[in-house]
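Inputs:
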Amino acid sequence: EVLRSADITMYRAKAAGGNRYEHADPEADVLAITRHGLTNSLPTALERGEFFIEYQPLVRLSDGTVHGAEALVRWCHPLRGVLGPDQFIPLAENTGLIVPLGRWVLGEAVRQARAWQFADGEGPLRVNVNLSPFQLRYPDLVRDTAEVLKEAGLEPTALCLEVTESALIGADETLLRPLRQLADLGVDIALDDFGTGYSNLSNLRRMPLSALKLDRSFTRGMQQDPADPVDLKIVEGVVALAHTLDLAVTVEGVETGAQAEHLRVLGCDTAQGWYYARPGPPDRLHALSLVDAS
Ligand code: C2E
Ligand code: CA
Ligand code: CA
Ligand code: CA
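Outputs:
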């Protein structure tokens, strides 16, 4: 997508704090902006309310009801349109903005979960929030989280924080301590993207985990007909291991009914993916859960 030169001028003027900016090569300008423009606009994006959250349901495989939803952040950039997290989370991590951004996501998601509970009355919906390893190193994380939950009036057990497997590789006490403190609060911790890193399986025991989220690469072979028998065996083994360690198993990236059925038979607990619903606005999730519960 190409930026109009008027946009570029305006953008540069803003980025330079109102100073005129002269440049001889407009094409180089476009490149420079796509590369560096996000860095300049990211710090103020939070104040300007440019972030929003989509929710994707997690579905219980046993009966198809909605268990909860994962909060996925998006950035509605004034010039570039909606950007996915892969386009700005690394930048937020490098600039330190991940801490206030992560706190904002957590607050929004927790208030949303509370709102769902009020609207629903029945099975309380839970909310999953992604946690960057940079947030884990932030000393006030545990206190902030406890505060956010208290302010919203959400019980800690309705929150699950997802930490990627790669973030915890070689995890030392500095990372494990806040995780344990969060778990002590009653918050669930899920190991995200499980199977993409190289975590020593016996290490899982040291971590205060409640769930494993299997990466979608596990289910690729289940789209074939017949399903790849080795893939089925691998998932069967992972589920057995997880359940031995008292961990629930969620599978992400489920795109077909065939995959869902295999996962159910293999004993996975919950699933998430386009087969059920794409990420969307919070009210749509509530509608889904009412339909499923009836
Ligand atoms: P993730 O935590 O592994 O989230 C799952 C990603 O898979 C999401 O991408 C989701 O939209 C996508 N997805 C869901 N169902 C399907 C499916 O059936 N097929 C396929 N192909 N994809 C599916 P998204 O929203 O682009 O998020 C990308 C990553 O950004 C997330 O991966 C997560 O690591 C990170 N992220 C998102 N929100 C936050 C946040 O608030 N904080 C932090 N630190 N990271 C976040
Ligand atoms: Ca996740
Ligand atoms: Ca994941
Ligand atoms: Ca993933």
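Remarks. The pocket of calcium ion (ligand 4) is lined by residues 193, 215 (CB under 6 Å). The CA atoms of residues 62 and 264 lie 7 Å apart.
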